[in-house]
Amino acid sequence: MSADGTLTIAPAKLDIRRVGGRLGAEIAGVRLGPDLDDATVQAIYDALHAHKVIFFRDQGHLDDDSQEAFAERLGSPVAHPTVPVKNGKYLLELDSRLGGRANSWHTDVTFVDAYPKASILRAVTSPEYGGDTVWANTAEAYNRLPPELKALADSLWALHTNAYDYAATRGTVSKEAIERHRTVFASTVYETEHPVVRVHPATGERTLVLGHFVKSFVGYSSQDSRRLFDLLQDQVVKLENTVRWRWRQGDVAIWDNRATQHYAVDDYGDQVRVMRRVTLDGDTPVSITGERSRVIKPEVAPHSIAAE
Known about the structure:
Its cofactor is Fe(2+). Residues 17-279 form the TauD/TfdA-like domain. Belongs to the TfdA dioxygenase family. One of its GO terms (molecular function) is 2-oxoglutarate-dependent dioxygenase activity. The structure is a single chain. By secondary structure, the chain is of the alpha+beta class. It has a single domain (15-297), classed as Clavaminate synthase-like (Double-stranded beta-helix, 4-Layer Sandwich), CATH 3.60.130.10. Helices cover 21% and strands 25% of the residues. It has helices at 38-51, 64-74, 138-143, 147-155, 175-185, 222-236; strands at 15-18, 25-28, 53-56, 77-78, 92-95, 118-125, 133-137, 157-161, 191-195, 197-199, 206-208, 214-217, 242-245, 252-256, 260-264, 274-280, 294-297. Strands 1, 2, 3, 4, 5, 6, 14 and 16 form an eight-stranded mixed beta sheet that branches. It has a four-stranded antiparallel beta sheet with strand order 12-8-9-17.
C-alpha cells in the first residue's frame, strides 16, 4: 500500500539476460499475452525502461489479435497515421514483398507531435539469413556528448516530416517503392518541430530526437542542417552504442521509442520477411526548458483511425 492509500503492485522477478553493453536484454520464461498478471506487466515495463529494447524468443502462440490484446496491457495502441491497417485494428504489416524494408536509422513516426512511446514487433516470417534489426540508445548517445556539443544540442530544434527524400535514405530503391511512399506513406504531409533533446517522462533521461524524418534544423540552412545532423546522428549510431538482433519466427521485440533509433538491415535478397508491429500512443516531447513540440502541418492533425 502506498502513502496515499492506493494499492501498489510489486513487479515480478524476470529472467533477464543482457545482450548489449549499452542497451538490449533478452527475457526468458515469459509467455506474452493479454492474460499476463499485473506484476509481470510492470516488470516488463521496468525492464524496457532499463534496457531500452527487450527481446522474447518462442512467442509463436501469438497471432494478430493476441498481439494487439497484449499491447493493450502496456498502453493504448494507435494505428499508423497514414498507412492503412491490413489486419486487426492497429497492426502495421511490414512485408518485404510490398516494400517493407526500412533500411535507414529512425525513431518511429516522429513526424507527428505525440509520436509513439513504444513499439511491439513480431516476426511472422523470417529469412534464412539476414534481415536483422539494429537498435541504438539515444539517451546514452546524449550522455556521451562532449559538454560543448551537449550545450549545442540542448538549444536545437528540428523539423521532422514524412515528406522526405525516400530514395536518398536507401541504397537501391524501385520506382514502385518510391511511388508507394508518395501515395501511401506521404498521402497526408506531416511536419512537426521537436526539440533535439527531450526529457523522457518516465526516466527523466535526456534523449536525442533525430533519425531520417529530420528535414532541417530550425534557423539553419539546408547545408548547415546536414552538417549538424551528421555530427549528432553519428554519435547515436556508433557501433558501441548499438545492439543487433537475429530474428527467428515467433520472436517479439519491444522498444522504448522515446530512447532509441532502429535500422532494419536489408541484406536478405529476395527472401520473404514479414513483421507485424503495434505502436503505443505517446506524449508530446518537452525540451529541457519545458517547451513542447510544435505542429506545423497539418494545422489540425487527423487522428489515426482504426480499421472497422
